[in-house]
Amino acid sequence: MDAKILIESFAEFARSKNVDRPTMIRILEDVFRAMIRKKFETDENFDVTINADKGDLEIFRIREIVDDNSEDIWDFDKISLTDAQKIEPDFEIGEEVYEKIELEDFGRRAVQMARQTLIQKIKDLEKDILYNKYEEQIGEIISAEVYQILGREILLIDGEGNELILPKGEQIPKDRFRKGDTVKAIVHRVDMLNGNPKVILSRTSPVFLERLFENEVPEVYDGLITIVKIVREPGERAKVAVESYDDRIDPVGACVGMKGSRIHAVVRELQNENIDVINYTDNLELYVSRALSPAKVSSISVNADTKRISVFLKPDQVSLAIGKGGYNIKLASKLVGYEIDVFRELNEYEEEDVDLNEFSDEIDQWIIDELKKTGLDTAKSVLALTKEDLTRRTELEEETIEEIFRILRQEFEQ
């Protein structure tokens, strides 16, 4: 293989990868200088000129002419007068000899080694290009095509044929892809394993949800609305805290869109993940109250030392605060940065409870049995009803019911 073929093949690859000309020349020069050092032990007195466009290569060995008896005659950059005059008869002492070295002078083995070195340089360059390209895109959304589905990951290819990886742990649990599908994801990270770049994508990262909002909500993209924080349980639920520095813009309304048009596009991409968009505020209690939406909070107690918040709600709001699978309270805790403990707000009769059998010395046993038939077995369960409710549910007379209420209330008053 001659120099022209070597240079042209490398230049063609370099151009296909958008490698700039100085980088291309530097790599070629490194390869040829390595050949020179292999043969002559040094390349300090060699001039290497490469024209990548034409595939031309010129290598000149530069040496100063010295007297045949000079002590410097063995220096790498010196040549005796006798040897110099073999190249050009009219050379004189003190002049410089530019001796052209042909690629064939290095020998077939050296040329083959140079070819292998150049191939390796090409591969290394390709890896560097891939690594640098995707490292600059970390946190950005890309689209790629599925070409192989494995047990623990999905392999995709980008528009240039590069392999990308979407691990199982970075997939939304409801994701179902087939070969040929186009997948949206963010570039999560780029790892270098044994010299090979591994581009890892993610669909579960909060950043993926943030980028989707930027795509669907112009105010977010333009910076008029700021996404303060996102917490997710991928495929199930997410909470997004937003704020606007312009009082004329409703950040929640802008993110949701007319009739939910904007947020629906995001929800569909996330496999129907339930997204709560809330207004961010510095008021911690108000922030917690909004974070627990759709539950309505009655009161809040904050312990800054332990980073815990006690939230009190009416009985019918507790399940809403906790949410299906506990996701609502879990995400609310992550959003505000405090552990949230939910408590059922007690009415005046719920602070304590007593079994009805404890009143057998004041209330006849048959009356207690009658109450138990209707599912009332504690004092507070009876007091939670009105006199009319108890009359309707039992066959007891009004006077008896009034007496029962008096006895039970007296117990709690004590």
From TrEMBL:
| Residue span, S1 motif domain | 139-204
Output the PROSITE patterns linked to this UniProt entry.
S1 (PS50126)
Name the principal localization, coarsely classed. Answer: cytoplasm
Is Oxidoreductase one of the keywords? no
Q: Which InterPro entries match?
A: DNA_repair_Rad51/TF_NusA_a-hlx, KH_dom-like_a/b, KH_NusA_2nd, KH_sf_prok-type, NA-bd_OB-fold, NusA_N_sf, S1_domain, TF_NusA
Matching entries from CDD domains are given as: KH-II_NusA_rpt1 (cd02134), KH-II_NusA_rpt2 (cd22529), S1_NusA (cd04455)
What are the protein's UniProt keywords?
Answer: Cytoplasm, Elongation factor, Protein biosynthesis, RNA-binding, Transcription, Transcription antitermination, Transcription regulation, Transcription termination
Statement: the UniProt record of this protein carries the keyword Thylakoid: no
Query: What family does the entry list?
Result: Belongs to the NusA family.
The cross-references to PANTHER family, in alphabetical order and at most eight, read: TRANSCRIPTION TERMINATION FACTOR NUSA, TRANSCRIPTION TERMINATION_ANTITERMINATION PROTEIN NUSA
Q: Please give the subunit comment from the record.
A: Monomer. Binds directly to the core enzyme of the DNA-dependent RNA polymerase and to nascent RNA.
Functional note = Participates in both transcription termination and antitermination.
- The name of this protein is Transcription termination/antitermination protein NusA
UniProt organism field? Algoriphagus sanaruensis
User: What broad taxonomic lineage does this protein's source fall under?
Assistant: Bacteria, Pseudomonadati, Bacteroidota, Cytophagia, Cytophagales
The coding gene here is nusA
